Amino acid sequence: MQHGPAVRRRKLGAELRALRSSAGLTSGEAARLVGWHQSKVSRIETGTSGVKPTDVRLLLDAYGVTDAQLRELLMMLAGAEDSDGRHHWWHAYRGVLPPTYRDFISLESQAGAMRTLETTVVPGLLQTPEYARAVTRAAVEGLPEDRLDTLVEVRLARQDVLRADPPLELSAVLDEAVLRREVGGPGVMARQLERLVEAARLPQVRLQVLPFAAGAHIGVTGPFVIFSFSSTSDLDVVVLDHLTSSLYLERKEDLQAYTEAFNALQIHALSPEDSLDFIAGTAAGA
């Protein structure tokens, strides 16, 4: 269990080590190809030291890696700009967002798929501006209005991943409590439920409701997110949110356990079609 930056370094290092091995190179041979000492390659591969995007590019070139998507993903993990040479949009908020949140956003922006269990609030990618404001205000008491505006702005900017090409594939299981908890007042909640109905009809979104009638379930221990990457499953990661930070689980056994848990939740939840009717019915009665 690690904080975001450490996980990213270790995952990046492990992937670079695998690519070097596939290229049939020893760490010493790789170091000579790029003009480094062998110890630098070792430190990068073990995640004990950071690595610059330019260094990652040198290694990928040396290993003959031509997969554009994989290259961009690994460069992103090293903190690179996007493919057009621009800084990622969240860099403008470096003075406002904690590092763990920036790491979460960077993973979210590059992931091919996201699976999430939500037990208390609507997933951030599906929140309306009014709902996002009410949730943020409740989560952080005494927040100045300008800071609140910024955090809501970030929350809404994150939603662009659902409109990207290709879009992030979002699978979400929502406990019925998410739909019943009145956030921001009746009007705000009614609009939020309407937004969920709209989202449930999108081809890249799969929403399922876990009704109270399902009883106790494996998700009662709390919400979680699983990020999956189309280029390599070795970069998949589970994120657990806490009040002041996020924790990242990267071990294969952790990924397997949470994947199996999510699959079980989907089985016990209503089907996407029945969930859409359930949300619409809840909205009509709101």
From TrEMBL:
Q: Which residues form a coiled coil?
A: none
One Pfam family this sequence matches: DUF5753
CDD domains hit by this protein: HTH_XRE
Q: Which SMART domains match?
A: HTH_XRE
Domain HTH cro/C1-type stretches: 16-70
Q: Which domain of life is it from?
A: Bacteria
Q: Which InterPro entries match?
A: Cro/C1-type_HTH (IPR001387), DUF5753 (IPR043917), Lambda_DNA-bd_dom_sf (IPR010982)
Annotated protein name in UniProt:
Helix-turn-helix domain-containing protein
Q: Say which species the protein is native to.
A: Streptomyces tibetensis
